[in-house]
Structures
1.
Amino acid sequence: REVLEEMEEGKPFSITYVTCDVNRNTGGDLMKLENVILSFQEKGAEKFGFESPEPNVTEHTKRANHYVHASRNVLLQNGMRRKFHLRLLLEFNGQKVFY
């Protein structure tokens, strides 16, 4: 809960997580993302040096239900988005996360 509260403050952070895609039977890679913000906070991202985000794809997409699936989207500095699952989060700002 503390990690989520810090993420939602709107300041850039770094995370390390494990990838997993049950539908494609892939994952297990360690991903380290530096200087990212939550995607829904992209309106204020310019002040931290982020490029304009990729446009949202609205055709034939389902709602993400992030709170139901315990996932979040983060915005990278180059404007790309990445999704990660909170339960697969290993580090937040260099500190280990215990779920």
2.
Amino acid sequence: MNVFAALADPTRLSIFELIAGGEKTVGEIVDQFSFKPPTISQHLQVLKQAKLVSVRAEGQKRIYTVDETGLKEIETWMQQQKTHWNQKLDALERHLDAKAKPRKKKK
């Protein structure tokens, strides 16, 4: 699953934003939602597959943190969009500038 599909789900987006605020245990994440732990675990698995979060074990606890890999995918996409739209807007500006130049009248 890509990062955009993973974050399209409102619950996963909320979970990601929670983890982005600082690393969280599964218990801390579950406490913030009205879902049962298995449902939260499924959402965390999707976020992990999309490389948006990573997990490490500390004893019995699983601690989730933001994974920069997924964020880089978003950053790359945003840069591509910025380049694309800057080119389009520059072309529009050139077109409008050319239209705005006064034309010489024929006699």
3.
Amino acid sequence: MSNQSPAYFDLDTVALLRGALDDAWASLKPGQRATISRTLLAEGILREASKGERDPNRLIEAALIAASQPAA
């Protein structure tokens, strides 16, 4: 998202994104929560949301994929 203009979301979308983040976090096992930050999950969600994605399941999937990628 750093090379793009900032994304702005309305309140309903922010609520949807927050719910996706909470659901993605809840889907992790306790051991995974110890090694993955919520910020990393949020980055995956925001990356997809900035492209127009609003499906909660796809946003959760994007979060989990972002969390599984090796650090750059």
4.
Amino acid sequence: MSLKFVVMQEGLLTPAIAATVTRLTSHVLDMPLRARDLDLDEWLAKPNPAKWSKLEILGHLVDSAINNLKRFTDVQYLPQPYRITPYQQDDLVTINAYQQLPFDHILQMWIALNQQILYVIANLPADKLSHQVIIPNGEVKTLGWWIDDYADHMEHHLRQIFYPKT
């Protein structure tokens, strides 16, 4: 995937969503390169037994992508407002056993899912961005807001992986 993909589709998007697509595209291109700079021990190390390792954080981002891909598609055809249901993130990290899976397997899932999310977002008709969503805390937002929040969530966890607090 390349940034050319985003430019080709940009005319269909609002400026705000085009900026979010550019952010996400940058992460999908850059993160795998940066990820290779960390050795496996760094990916597997847990700051303490109750915290996720970097590999589990990446697995959580896979779970986030799975759930949000479905949300980004469902909101386009289901009755409005669309209710976003939370998912059990700790349970999913445990059940999917990300700590025991090969790094490359998790990384490839993250890349593929986010590429698909980018395709879905880049082809969204602009009028669907204003579709209302009810987020888990009960607030009413728009699909455009939710897409931007997805990018913010990803960036939060990428900072945890690459710039952990010492």
